[in-house]
Amino acid sequence: MLLAEHGLQFMAGPEIRRPSSDVRSETIARRLGVLANLSPAETALLHDVGAGPTTVWTPRSLIETQAEYALQLFLISGWAARVCELKDGRCQFLQLILPGDALAPHLQVCDRQQTIQCLTLSRTVDGTAIRLAARDSAKFPGIAAATELAAAHDRALLLDQVTRLGRQTAYERVANLFIELHYRCSQVGLVHADGLAFPLTQEAIGDLLGLSLVHVNRTLQLMRRESMIALKQGRLMLLNLPELQAIADFRPPQIEHLG
Q1: Residues 195 and 223 occupy one common structural domain
Q2: What global pTM score does this model have?
Q3: In whole angstroms, what is the distance from residue 196 CA to residue 153 CA?
Q4: How many domains does the chain have?
Q5: How far apart are CA 147 and CA 239, in angstroms?
Q6: CA 189 to CA 50: how far, in whole Å?
Q7: Looking at the domain assignment, is residue 49 inside a domain?
Q8: Lowest CB count within 10 Å: 76, 101, 152, 216, which one?
Q9: What is the pLDDT of residues 137-176, one digit of tens each?
Q10: How many angstroms separate the CA atoms of 227 and 203, rounded?
Q11: Last residue within a domain, chosen from 147, 163, 179
């Protein structure tokens, strides 16, 4: 169905708030810090950006990726997804965006109707200072390398999504998604005792993995019966991580800065 038929609207002027000091301000520094060595000054800059005024997006709102302001945004809390809408209104979720991620880590494709859909209440900050620092590799070599690697990492995950949709079974797709999310959330300190917050509905899982709602439900029930996962009250627990990793065949992207 058309995005508009789901009650979705583009948000031209969402609410802007200044957050209190909390863990959300650290997500960008954590995300980029696992990709390259950052100096104390670079880490401080990323913390300052993360602690800056936030834009608050309600669940199901859309952020138009062609808008100039969207190219500078970083997500510091909540989950979002890159969505492509076909001419007949069918939609495909391309990728999930998690805390610490840039909304536009690389150049956008302009010949498709691509948007960012907020899956939960989400908060973004203006990352213009990060973009400017990344251009000054002499003064900010860590940020320059980390942002380049973040874009490469994002592209690698998109290629994994293509393989997931094209060659894996329903069970393998769900397992692959869960292991990917475990890996990505662990990088920003959002995994505790092999569990993570999991706000995705079964419908959203189906939109991301190309599965019907019935197929998603059956697969999740099977995983529960096999004691692979526990999914309750918005929290996902991976109960048999080694076995799930073997089934998922997920390999963390191996990337290297060549600059």
Answers
A1: yes
A2: 0.87
A3: 21
A4: 2
A5: 33
A6: 15
A7: yes
A8: 152
A9: 999 999 999 999 999 999 999 999 999 999 999 999 999 9
A10: 22
A11: 163
